[in-house]
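Question (not urgent): is this output format expected?
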Amino acid sequence: MASSPTRRLILLRHAKSAWPDDVPDHDRPLAPRGRRDAPAAGRWLRKSGYSDYVPDRVLCSTAKRARETWQLAEEKLGAHPPAEFEDRVYGASPADLLALVRLTSADVRTLLIVGHEPTMRELALELAREPTGDAEAEALGRVQAKYPTASIAVLSFSDRWAKLGPGLARLTDFATPSDFSAGHGRRA
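Got this back:
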């Protein structure tokens, strides 16, 4: 029996947000640094993944800072995948996000979620299997240490979306804004 094609789940934490007075958390916009980092994230996805990191579908939190992150990243991505602004991503737990991921259509090979901390980090750590090499171990260690704004984790697996669960994916890449400006990622 042939193996299933590789699927990728990309977890993009929204870029740095501002903290204006009297603005509800959901409506906070990006800060100037976030406006710089979000397009850089899109460029990094386009260049680092050799088209494997260009998503077929995007699930984005409805929070203003997440929507702005996706809009700025998409401008530099070189593609315009269907994006769904999903209320359930804002304030989601890792289990909530995993439930949404499991509903993904079989024709989607690469799914990108634009979300929030601590959920992005927790979901990446939950799904990542034990590292099998130095690059995977380094990526896992970096995610364990910190998941800065505008950071991207890439998880790969070879099964249906509905089967994705704890410890079943390879953490193949993790990049932060400092990696974007250096022009490289941490591909495992």
